[in-house]
Amino acid sequence: xxxxxxxxxxxxxxxxxxxxxxxxxxxxxxxxxxxxxxxxxxxxxxxxxxxxxxxxxxxxxxxxxxxxxxxxxxxxxxxxxxxxxxxxxxxxxxxxxxxxxxxxxxxxx
Length: 109
Prior knowledge:
Elements: H1 2-108
């Protein structure tokens, strides 16, 4: 009977030892996974910082392009106004020349 009792205690100890070894292995795996997830989280945060920086650059470029577009439109309006004034003067000069020619022809005739 004492041999059987010793054998049972021995089996229990062996079983507990396996359980503790499994727990240690699981704990190590969980620790490794936590480290991996933490490293991945750091990479995501770094990428987020870069993305925000790129978006800020794009936003500034869009603002600059908007300003340039507005300046170009104003310049185009000024050119169109100048063209209209030049065309009006050209018509006036042409009409004035025709009138002068007609008067000269009448006076000379």
